[in-house]
């Protein structure tokens, strides 16, 4: 009994050490939040940074949701926490955990430079799994909560791969390491159809590019350069919203960001500050990048304790290579579906980076039986998007949303999360 009391006190003290008492600019809040590091490889000095927010109410009953942003190499705190989910909105439905993964992203780090040479999908998933096992030891009160993983962009790799690690490990692990995983939520035709590229370029790409090949070669690579350059004046991640501009009205979204298919980095270099009372601000990434490099903010979040030799950025500048990335996640999705893991896939229908059309083509290859045909779903009296339900998988589009769905359509994103964790179908009629 005395041993249990000591263990409880040790856990409590460790949690309190991570508790964020106040944050510069933060209003008074009724919920608790925690931030800090969890070591995933002690010999190499690898540690991942997290930020955790308790639900606004019913903390003991609400599920735990892990949010991952993609890249590879982009921050779940810079995008997911700061610019998309909240915490003031989504935590109505869940306890929210944001993880900067892999090392080299945001505040997460390694003390072994050779780690970067072997960094890829597999090491990212392995480190994220070890993070979760150790995080639950620090916060054991959440071990029995239903656990869900969600995210966006290259998290289409991260989410199912981490889920697979958990699914496989749960078969043979001890009770202490068991994770109560319940579910995951995780281009050319589109650009032509939305008048971004010319008929000639569309036809040339269709004739010259075989995307089943690892390297389609020339002239395809040259044509794809032209394809990505077509997006230079606009935001590929949200075709119909403004871009961040400088004082002269020139777009500050450099073309390098969209030149390569695998480059999911989304930066903005404008340093203006605007007083935006409401609505979408295309320069919001600038503000958070300044904020997370402030020493007082880092101290409040227990971050950058090792004094990393580079600035916090939305997407990592120190990750230069990526050693492994399977071309398809379909085998992993099939495995999870067959294992009874709930799978939802969502897509903003104005996202030119990972468009609805590409996702629909991909999901068709799973060969799943259709349980509910393609139909609209509603947010009150308006269509929120469309969905189709397969045996074991639900695909949802969000009407008018870009790449970062919660940024553009927060109400619909909250509705999506609430129905996902409750395992309820989205409303098929106005209400």
Automatic annotation (TrEMBL):
GO function terms (MF aspect): serine-type carboxypeptidase activity
Species of the source: Ananas comosus (Pineapple)
InterPro entries per record: AB_hydrolase_fold (IPR029058), Peptidase_S10 (IPR001563), Ser_caboxypep_his_AS (IPR033124), Ser_caboxypep_ser_AS (IPR018202)
Protein's name according to its UniProt entry: Carboxypeptidase
One GO cellular component, as annotated: vacuole
Gene Ontology biological process terms in this record: proteolysis
Family under the similarity heading: Belongs to the peptidase S10 family.
Keyword Metal-binding: no
Enzyme Commission number(s): 3.4.16.-
Pfam families: Peptidase_S10
Keywords assigned: Carboxypeptidase, Disulfide bond, Glycoprotein, Hydrolase, Protease, Signal
EC top class named in words: hydrolase
Keyword Signal: yes
């Amino acid at each position: 009994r005395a041993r249990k009391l000591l263990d409880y006190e040790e856990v409590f003290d460790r949690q309190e050490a991570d508790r964020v008492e106040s944050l510069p600019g933060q209003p008074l809040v009724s919920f608790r939040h925690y931030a800090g590091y969890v070591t995933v490889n002690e010999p190499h000095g690898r540690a991942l940074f997290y930020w955790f927010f308790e639900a606004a109410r019913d903390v003991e009953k609400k599920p735990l949701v892990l949010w991952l942003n993609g890249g590879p190499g982009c921050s779940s705190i810079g995008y997911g926490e700061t610019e998309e989910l909240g915490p003031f909105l989504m935590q109505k439905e869940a306890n929210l955990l944001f993880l900067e993964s892999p090392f080299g992203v945001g505040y997460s780090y390694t003390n072994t430079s050779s780690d970067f040479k072997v960094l890829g999908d597999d090491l990212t998933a392995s480190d994220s799994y070890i993070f979760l096992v150790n995080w639950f030891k620090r916060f054991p009160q959440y071990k029995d909560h239903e656990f869900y993983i969600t995210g966006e962009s290259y998290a289409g790799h991260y989410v199912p791969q981490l889920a697979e690690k958990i699914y496989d490990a749960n078969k043979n692990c001890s009770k202490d390491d068991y994770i109560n995983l319940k579910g995951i939520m995780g281009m050319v035709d589109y650009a032509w159809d939305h008048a971004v590229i010319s008929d000639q370029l569309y036809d040339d790409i269709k004739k010259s590019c075989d995307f089943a090949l690892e390297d389609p070669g020339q002239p395809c690579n040259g044509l794809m350069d032209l394809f990505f350059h077509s997006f230079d004046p606009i935001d590929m991640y949200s075709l119909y919203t403004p871009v961040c501009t400088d004082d002269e009205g020139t777009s500050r979204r450099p073309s390098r960001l969209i030149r390569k298919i695998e480059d999911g980095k989304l930066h903005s270099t404008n340093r203006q500050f605007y007083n935006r009372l409401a609505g979408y601000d295309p320069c919001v990434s600038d503000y958070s990048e300044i904020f997370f490099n402030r020493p007082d903010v880092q101290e409040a979040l227990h971050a950058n304790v090792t004094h990393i030799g580079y600035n916090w950025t939305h997407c990592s500048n120190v990750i230069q290579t990526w050693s492994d990335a399977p071309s398809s996640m379909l085998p992993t999705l099939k495995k999870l579906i067959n294992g009874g893991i709930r799978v939802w896939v969502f897509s903003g229908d104005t996202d030119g980076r990972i468009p609805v059309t590409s996702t629909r083509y991909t999901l068709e290859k799973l060969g799943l039986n259709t349980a509910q045909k393609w139909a609209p779903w509603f947010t009150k009296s308006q269509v929120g998007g469309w969905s189709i339900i397969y045996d074991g998988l639900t695909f949802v589009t969000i009407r008018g949303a870009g790449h970062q769905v919660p940024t553009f359509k927060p109400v619909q994103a909250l509705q999506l999360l609430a129905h996902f964790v409750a395992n309820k179908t989205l409303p098929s009629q106005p209400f």
